[in-house]
């Protein structure tokens, strides 16, 4: 099975190399790496060009936001499976993609998800927060449960059949599309109880202003999908506390 990995980036010269190295160090052979750059001007493109021989699609142009960039990447993907690795992030190990494919083949799943960790920005060996998942039950969704989005891999036909990211949610469309997938009983899901991704803390999306904006969009998404409003939002936010307690 061919796996398309989509990386979107804008002005991230300090971390893009480790992201690209993470993909290129995978032991699984059949990987298509798609890199969508928002016309970076800080040296990011120069770093990407050093890895270009093993990047299958590289587009650098202005976009309308991160979900526009992700949708571009999905449109370019030719793999059987699609996953996302942001420019701050790395796969947990060199055999992560191989493990994902093996599990999806074994279970014939349409969607796979797993566990992830948040790490210190300057020292990625220092785990600050553990984002654990569990085998899926629909009832979990009303209590704010949702897997870490970058641990989710889906068959490409899921996008074709059920749609791409809704760009009207400028900062929370990953939550919307995840709920669309997890509420849909026609999509067969499987849980891989392994760490899949390392995500650096301290990115742009962690600012207080953007977190308020995200919560505002989250509540609209929660109500749209018929979940119990502010109760679900409060549970979703509260779930972060035990993630810190589990670290290390």
Based on the model shown, name its key terms.
single chain; alpha/beta; nine-stranded mixed sheet; 9 helices; 9 strands; 36% helix; globular
Structure notes:
- There is one protein chain.
- By secondary structure, this protein is of the alpha/beta class.
- It has helices spanning 16-24, 44-50, 66-76, 96-107, 156-162, 173-182, 208-224, 229-238, 240-245, and strands at 3-9, 31-37, 57-60, 81-84, 90-91, 111-119, 127-131, 153-155, 189-200.
- Strand 6 and strand 7 (127-131) form a beta hairpin.
- It starts with a strand and ends with a helix.
**What summary fits the major beta sheet?**
9 strands, mixed
* Gyration radius from CA atoms, angstroms: 17 Å
Strand content: 15-25%
Note the run of SSEs as H and E: EHEHEHEEHEEEHHEHHH
Helix and strand content put the structural class at alpha/beta
Residue stretches low in confidence (pLDDT < 50, at least 5 long) are: none
Number of helices: 9
**Overall number of strands:** 9
Shape: globular
Q: What's the rounded overall pLDDT mean? A: 94
| End-to-end CA span | 34 Å
Percent range of helical residues: 25-40%
């Amino acid at each position: 099975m061919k796996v398309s990995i989509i990386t979107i980036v804008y002005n991230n010269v300090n971390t893009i190399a480790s992201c690209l190295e993470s993909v290129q160090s995978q032991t699984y052979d059949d990987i298509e790496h798609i890199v969508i750059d928002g016309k970076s001007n800080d040296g990011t493109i120069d770093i990407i060009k050093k890895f270009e021989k093993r990047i299958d699609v590289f587009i650098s142009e202005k976009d309308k936001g991160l979900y526009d960039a992700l949708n571009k990447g999905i449109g370019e993907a030719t793999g059987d499976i699609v996953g996302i690795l942001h420019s701050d992030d790395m796969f947990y190990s060199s055999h992560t993609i191989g493990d994902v494919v093996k599990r999806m083949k074994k279970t014939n799943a349409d969607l796979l998800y797993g566990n992830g960790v948040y790490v210190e920005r300057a020292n990625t060996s220092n785990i600050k927060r553990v984002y654990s998942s569990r085998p899926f039950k629909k009832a979990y969704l009303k209590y704010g449960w949702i897997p870490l989005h970058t641990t989710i891999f889906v068959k490409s036909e899921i996008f074709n059949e059920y749609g791409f990211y809704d760009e009207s949610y400028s900062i929370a469309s990953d939550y919307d599309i995840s709920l669309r997938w997890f509420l849909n009983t026609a999509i067969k899901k499987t849980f891989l109880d392994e760490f899949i991704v390392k995500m650096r803390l301290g990115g742009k999306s962690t600012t207080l202003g953007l977190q308020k904006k995200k919560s505002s969009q989250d509540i609209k998404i929660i109500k749209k999908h018929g979940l119990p409003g502010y109760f679900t939002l409060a549970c979703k936010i509260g779930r972060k506390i035990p993630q810190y307690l589990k670290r290390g």
